[in-house]
Amino acid sequence: MKEAGFSRRVLTALALGFFLASAAILPFGCGADEEASDDVTASDDDDTAPSDDDAQAAAPDEEAFDEDHVFETLAEFEEYAGGELPEAIDDEIVLARLAAIRGDIPRAARPKAGIGESCTKNSDCDDDAKFCNGVPFCADNVCVTSGNPCIDGTFCNGVENCVEESDQCFPSVEEKCPDDGAYCNGVEVCDEENDKCGRTGNPCSDGVWCNGTEDCVEDGDICPGTHSDPPCPANDGVFCNGRESCAEPANGSTVGTCGTTMPCPSDGIFCNGQEYCDTEADACAGDTTDLCPDDGLYCNGIEYCDSSRDACASDGNPCSDGVFCNGEEACFEDRDECGPASEPPCPDDGKFCNGEEFCDTESDACASEGSPCNLTVEVCVDDEDTCKAVEDLEVGGDGLGDGDKDGGCCSC
C-alpha cells in the first residue's frame, strides 16, 4: 500500500480554515462504506486494539474507489482521508481535491470572469481571444481590456484600424482635421502638441494690429482690403487730453498697447512754473502760482525766482532808497518798518596820506581825496600822519640821498 502523503492532522488543519468551501463540487471517489465506518466506531467503543482484519476493512481498497463520488461534508472527507489511500489513487487527484477545498481551484476547473466582472488578479479574467479587444487584466477588482492594440497614441494621424480576421493593424483612412469649407477662418490644421484641431485664422490679415481686423467676405472668398474694429480709439481732436496712440505688439506678444501722449511735458525750466494745458487757447503754459512763496520775513524783501540759479531768492532790504551814498537804510523786522541809515557808506580807512574818504555819487562807490600834502615841496609821512617840507628832511639828514642839492628845491 502506498502512503497518501497527507496525514489526518495536516488534512484537518488545511480544511478547518476553509470550512465554508463547498465540497459538493469535488468528486473524489472511493468513499468508505457505512459498515466499515461503523466497525471502526465499534472498535473504538470496545477500547480494544483492532485486528489485522479490522485494519484492512478500515482502509479503502482499489475497487471501492469511485471517481464520481462527491463528498457532502468536510467531516466525510476527513473520515475517508484518515485511512491509507490505495496505490491506484494518483497523488495528483488528492492534490486537486485539497486545492479545491482551500479555494485554489485549478485553472482548468475554475470559471473565468468576463469583462466588467469582479476579479482579484489578472488570471481571473477570461481572454476572449479577440485580437482587437486587447489583453484582459484585472484593475480595481474588475476585469477590463487594454483596448485596441493598433492605436499609436498620435492624435493627428487618426484612429488606427484593427482587422480581427488577420490580427493586423492598418493606418487610419479618415482625415483628422477635415476642411470645414469656410474661407474666412483659414486653413484647418492639426495641433499634435495639444491633441486638437485648429485653424490658421483670417486669411485677409495683414499682420498689423493697430489698423484693426481685416474684413473677409465669405461669399466669393474675397479680401476687400478694408478694416473694422480698430483696437485703439481714434484721435478725438481735443488738444488738451493728449494725442491717442497705438503701439504694435512687441516681445512675442500678440496684443499691442493703446495710449495717450500728453501735450504739455515739462520743459525742465524751474522758473516758468509747472506746465499745464490751457484748454481755452489749446496751448501749453506754465503755472507759477506759489512757485516762490513769501517766507514771512519783511527785511529780506520780496521772494522771486532766480532764473540764473533755477531757485527762489529774495530781492533784499525793502527800505533801501537805491541811493548808495546816503548809507544803508535801517529795517526793523519786528515792526516791518524802515529807518534812516545808521552809518555813512564810506568810513575812514585810517590812512592819512590818501586823504579823506568820500562817496562818489556818479559811481556809487567810496573814494579817497588823495594826499593832503603839497607834494611839490612836501613829503607825506603816513606813520606820523603829517606832511614835512623837503628842506627840513635834508637838514635833518633823513637820507634822501647824496644827489640832493643843499639850499635848493628837490626838483632843481
Description:
It is a single chain. Helix content is 13%, strand content 18%. With 412 residues, it is of the alpha+beta class. The strands form ten sheets. Strands 1-2 form a two-stranded antiparallel sheet. Strands 3-4 form a two-stranded antiparallel ribbon. The protein is rod-shaped and about 170 Å long.
- CA-to-CA gap between the ends? 184 Å
Extended strand count: 20
Roughly how much helix do the residues carry, as a percent range?
Answer: 10-25%
Q: State the order of secondary-structure elements, H for helix, E for strand.
A: HHHHHEEEEEEEEEEEEEEEEEEEEH
Query: What do the pLDDT scores average to?
Result: 75
Q: Can you count the helices?
A: 6
**Poorly predicted spans:** 1-50, 52-68, 84-93, 95-109, 395-412
Coarse structural class: alpha+beta
Reported for the largest beta sheet, the result is:
2 strands, antiparallel
Strand composition percent: 15-25%
Please state the overall shape, judged from the principal axes of the Cα atoms. Answer: rod-shaped
Query: How much is the radius of gyration in Å?
Result: 65 Å
